Amino acid sequence: MNGAQALMKTLADAGIEVCFSNPGTSEMHFVAALDSEPRMRAVLALFEGVATGAADGYARMAGKPAATLLHLGCGLGNGLANLHNARKGKVPVVNIVGDHATHHVPFDAQLQSDIETVARNVSPGFVRTSKTTATLCADAVAAIQAARGLPGQVATLILPADVSWGEGGTPCPPPPAPAPPPADDASVAAIASAIRSGGKAALLLGSNALREPALLAAARIAAQCGVKLFCEVFPTRLERGAGLPAVERIAYLAELATLQLTGIEHLVLVDAKPPVSFFAYPGKASELVPDGCRVHVLATPAQDAGASLDRLAAALGATQATPALQPVARPSRPRGRLSAAKVCKAVGHLLPERAIVIDEAITSGLLLGAMTAGAPRHDLLTLTGGAIGQGLPNAVGAAIACPDRPVIALVGDGSAMYTLQALWTMARERLDVTTIIFNNASYSVLNVELERVGADAAPGPKARSQLDLHGPVLDFCRLAQGMGVHAARADSAESFCKALEYALARPGPHLIEAVVPEALGGTKRRMLPWLLRSLPRLPLPLARTLKHKIAP
Ligand SMILES: Cc1ncc(C[n+]2csc(CCOP(=O)(O)OP(=O)(O)O)c2C)c(N)n1
Ligand SMILES: [Mg+2]
């Protein structure tokens, strides 16, 4: 066996069955070895950001990593933003980057660059350049172990061409499955007594605490002790919908998050960080934990969140408590001129069983959570690292991980254009993905941010033009059709519902271009900064009612 063939077998033996690739000459032996391993599926992406985002979406849904195959430092650089999203989401990825043959490096050929430096940003825990064919598979096992340990991470294995083509590759057995410990007795007892002390308490659930068993344990604690359940602002994978416990997501806007957290005296972190503002604003605090609130850590990202919650439930005598579950409730079928809110309503009205919903709708998705709260249970994947261009690639990966489940990706027009090539992979692999693009011809959220940061009282035409997508207005139907994806445009709620029903009833990829006005346009946009500023001065119940109107 050459190195690449042994590597392929090592990956497959460890349960890595999909490789999202965008190869070049230095990866040709790896590409050739794909045919030596029937267990490995190879999925071509036409941009590295699609490959890395697909690996992220795949792992979120499969619960195990995929491999990527990227071409040297430049290919890795192109894929970096979605590896960043994976890193922030604690998602495992075995990130394989081809390199020049070791003897070629000193010549500083055209594509020579410092791959390790590029990789370190998204792979702080594991970057390794494999030095010999004989040790390649041991390096791969170390990468797999690093990737799928707790917390999950992006592990980068750099594969020089001669290590790949060299003879004498020896496959290695898979690493042991991770066995993360639960919270220790002392932490559980301390947190139980804080909750019993009577002060207002909340659990902030992140990552692995957002899956059904952990949610049920948290909901039992809530039912028994009256604690509030919060979910981190951008969950990696949240199981939600009818029949599951509902959790309140921390709002993106710091002013609204502050309102949610006001009055909390004990905040218990379960695989989550203390909440901070997404960005800094002049004169505003970065930390969102209220003054005087004590922060407790039940489970770090390296601990078993579900088992830790079970232990806390036991300590609080909540094991037999009846958790509150979200009742079935769907919004009615929307009518009239299309808006972002009506698209969300239609999705809530028609959401099929066991859907995977991917939310990169930015401002157009403000009502998505509320409109789908009582829809059939589904998984929600969000923009964990804030680097846009994640939605369409995530949909590719999720559909490959769960071929029997419908995937619905809701994406802003601006965000879609970063990694639009994902549509081609959806068509080629015949993935069951319905993509909804909100064409509001704007980087709308940045218009809101421009008002909020108070950069200038009246932004000029050059500033405005950097946030505007008119001239030419993008034609997503034709873009999709050009990549082999069936597409329809809707500008009324009726035509949108029809298009969504059509797409959901037929397998394979579909795209619906929803032509909508900006959800936060005109007066709403001008009022928002003023409203956000006045919230702290309003009586709490009124402020909370307003918060619910802006971001339910
Ligand atoms: C990689 C990356 N580049 C740029 C940004 C800055 N950014 C945040 S949102 C946004 C525009 C989003 O536009 P769109 O998807 O159309 O959503 P809308 O704001 O219109 O709702 C941009 C450019 C980012 N977050 N990530
Ligand atoms: Mg937009």
Amount of helix: 25-40%
Q: What shape does the CA trace take?
A: globular
Distinct small molecules bound, one entry per kind: thiamine diphosphate, magnesium ion
> How many strand segments?
18
N- to C-terminal distance: 58 Å
Q: Would you kindly provide a brief summary of this structure?
A:
The protein is of the alpha/beta class and 552 residues long. Helix content is 39%, strand content 16%. The longest helix is centred in the first third of the chain and has 16 residues, at 133-148.
General description of the model:
With 552 residues, this protein is an alpha/beta fold. The strands form three sheets. Strands 9-14-13-15-16-18-17 form a seven-stranded mixed sheet, sandwiched between helices. A six-stranded parallel sheet has the order 2-1-3-4-6-5, sandwiched between helices. Helix 7 (133-148) links the parallel strand 5 (127-129) and strand 6. Helix 18 packs across helix 22. The radius of gyration is 24 Å and the shape is globular. The model has no long low-confidence stretch (mean pLDDT 97). The structure holds thiamine diphosphate (TPP) and magnesium ion. Magnesium ion (MG) is lined by residues 412-414, 440, 442-444. Thiamine diphosphate (TPP) binds at residues 81, 362-364, 386-389, 412-415, 440, 442-446.
